[in-house]
Amino acid sequence: MENQAKTKWLHVRLSEEEYRTVNKHFGTSTSRKLSQYVRDKLLERPIVKTYRDKSNDDLMAELIPLRIELNRIGNNYNQAVKKLHTLKTIGEFKAWIIQHDIEKHTLFNKIEEIKNLIQKYAERWLQ
Questions:
Q1: Dihedral angle, C-alpha 9, 14, 19, 22, nearest 10 °
Q2: Span 70-115, pLDDT tens digits
Q3: Which runs of consecutive H residues, i.e. helices, occur in the chain?
Q4: What is d(CA 25, CA 17) in angstroms, rounded to the nearest whole number?
Q5: Smallest Cα–Cα separation from 25: which of 51, 53, 63?
Q6: Quick one: which of 25, 33, 45, 114 could link to 40 by a disulfide (CB 3.0–4.6 Å)?
Q7: How many CA atoms lie within 13 A of 79 on its CB side?
Q8: Residues near 46 by Cβ (< 8 Å), separated by ≥ 6?
Q9: Cα(86)–Cα(79) distance, rounded to whole angstroms?
Q10: Residue 126: its pLDDT value, please?
Q11: Distance between alpha carbon 69 and the CA centroid of its chain, in Å?
């Protein structure tokens, strides 16, 4: 029945508040289209709801900036290695080593931050 062509129209007027409420419920469902959601609701068919896991949202809010920072550090490292292959004098090499040491320190700090974050979420999860 779902694959049949939809040829009939049902016009419904809603207040702003009613429309926001319908849209809010639609947003928490797995329906891809508002019309499908409303049709399922009107015909009393089951509606699959999704939910957001607050702890996963919190985790992602902390991990996404760390991922971006790690990507930046990785790009800097790749550029440093490319530069290493072009060095011709001892002075250039010494400057590269100093810069590389700073980058390494930054990387290790970020890795430690990630370890601590994972530990914090693991302890919270085990409770």
A1: -60
A2: 888 888 888 887 887 887 888 887 788 888 888 888 888 888 888 8
A3: 16-27, 34-42, 54-84, 90-126
A4: 12
A5: 51
A6: 45
A7: 8
A8: 40
A9: 11
A10: 67
A11: 14
Nearest to 117 by CA among 67, 52, 43, 54: 67
d(CA 58, CA 55): 5
Evaluate the CA torsion angle 71, 73, 79, 84 in order and state its sign: negative
Would you give the distance in Å from CA 22 to the centre of its chain?
26
Q: Among all chains, which residue has been given the structure tokens 């409770």? A: 127
Q: What is the pLDDT of residues 16-71, one digit of tens each?
A: 999 999 998 888 888 888 988 999 998 889 888 766 666 776 777 788 888 888 88
